Amino acid sequence: MPERFINNDAVKQNIFTFSGGARVCPSKMLAHYKTLTILANIVKNYDFSILQGALFKPDKVDESGNPIIMPIKQNSTVGPENFKRDCRVVIKYVFNSGLEQCQQY
């Protein structure tokens, strides 16, 4: 990162990864689709599941029938307010032989 961005919050907010308008990067959409393709190829051999007793699940609804939304906090990215408590999942890697190796995060 160039030095002029390191301690200047106002300038950091003006960074556009692929630019915009007339000077938009011609490979913006290619990069987007390649990222999706690469991510899909990485996770295709994994099964993700929510732990039993998790606070936020699709089947936990409020009184009007809408799913209970996990509280979030927003900085430069958006994420859960309490990620150590709310983002616990079971990830299983499925080998070609059909055997599974389980890791809890």
Structure description:
With 105 residues, the chain is an alpha+beta fold. It contains four helices and five strands; from the N terminus they run αααβββαββ. The strands form two sheets. A three-stranded antiparallel beta sheet has the order 1-4-5, with no helix packed on it. The protein has a two-stranded antiparallel sheet with strand order 2-3. The model has no long low-confidence stretch (mean pLDDT 76).
Following the backbone from N to C, one meets helices and strands in this order, namely HHHEEEHEE
Strand content: 15-25%
Q: Which parts are unreliable, with pLDDT below 50 for 5 consecutive residues or more?
A: none
The level of helicity is 25-40%
Helix/strand/pairing category:
alpha+beta
Principal-axis shape? extended
- Spatially, the strands of the biggest sheet line up as 1-4-5
Task: Tell me the major beta sheet.
Answer: 3 strands, antiparallel
Beginning-to-end CA distance, first to last residue: 31 Å
Q: What's the total number of strands?
A: 5
Radius of gyration: 20 Å
On the 0-100 scale, what is the average pLDDT? Answer: 76
Helical region count? 4
Can I get a quick summary?
The chain is of the alpha+beta class and 105 residues long. The chain is 27% helix and 21% strand. The longest helix has 16 residues.
